[in-house]
Amino acid sequence: MTEKKAHKVTLIPGDGIGPEVTEAVVRILETTGIKFEWERFAAGAEAFEKHKEYIPKELYESIERNKLALKGPVTTPVGGGFPSINVTLRKKFELYANFRPIKNLPGLETRYPNVDLVIIRENTEDLYVGLEHEVVPGVVESLKVITAKASTRIAQFAFDYARKANRKKIHAIHKANIMKLSDGLFLKCAREVAKGFPEITYGEHIVDNTCMQLVMNPYQYDMLLLGNLYGDIVSDLCAAFVGGLGLVPGANLGVETAIFEAVHGSAPDIAGKDIANPTALLQSAVLMLRHIDEEEAADKVQEALEKVYTEKKTLTRDVGGSSGTKAFADAVVKAIEEAA
């Protein structure tokens, strides 16, 4: 039997708790028996200290070469400082689809049990193009950019995924009652794509009403299709249904390249204390395994993770336990090994 080649993955541990949760996830992934070659790079403030660049040229080259990256949280300054590393990488590699599944973990009690949502967010334009300037002192103008190309592409991605995953319903979320041209174009493109998928129910909701409807009854939704800004906000809101950003995965997908990342912050206040929860990055790594067609390994990791949550013996503090990052990872590793 020919031995499978190792998967080459660009690894960005990030800062704050990033290196701790990344180390835990790498150890768990390597327990599956799948071989990886990790190319590690700093990004953000740490990279600037070393290389005088927030994203080193070598990091760009590694992602370009491998087409695959796993990324821990990187601090983004508020109201100044360097641009978001996340947004920069998404633009650079045309990672046009942000994929965020929202699903409860077994054994973890929340106010909303049995949630099963998929958030599909356009990832390259809208207000996140960063086109803003000061017109006169005290007046800042920001430009929202919506194109037919990007809107059609993300709608096609959402409907293709729905068909493949046997999802039954998609709602396009908008503010076209006010933003008649920009959000109107987004809806026009979504409606056109929907015509090719008659088996999938298509609906439209205004974004503010959607937020209220989600809090009242998230079960009325199956998949949500959103532009960049609304998607950013609503996906975080939905994460609260299942326990918060420390638990949910994230994937940024393009035609050739994919970056899988934890969507929570870098939590510098608890960095180095062995108390961070690696679940979000681990579930992102499960998505990565499925992306590279390592379904068996993905199932192993997911089942082991769910076993640890069901048993409740080695959970981290943020989900009601008392264990540390390393002990939690040890428990997941043990569950994988026992299932072998």
The description of the largest β-sheet is: 10 strands, mixed
Q: List the domain count as a whole number.
A: 2
| Level-2 CATH architecture of the largest domain | 3-Layer(aba) Sandwich
Structural class: alpha/beta
What is the CATH homologous superfamily assignment of the largest domain? Isopropylmalate Dehydrogenase
Tell me, briefly, the overall form: globular
- Report the top-level CATH class of the largest domain: Alpha Beta
Distance separating the two termini: 20 Å
> What's the total number of strands?
12
Low-confidence stretches: none
Using the CA coordinates, give the radius of gyration. 20 Å
Q: What is the beta-strand fraction?
A: 15-25%
Q: Look at the structure and give the mean pLDDT.
A: 94
* Biggest β-sheet: strands ordered side by side in the sheet: 2-1-3-12-11-4-5-10-8-9
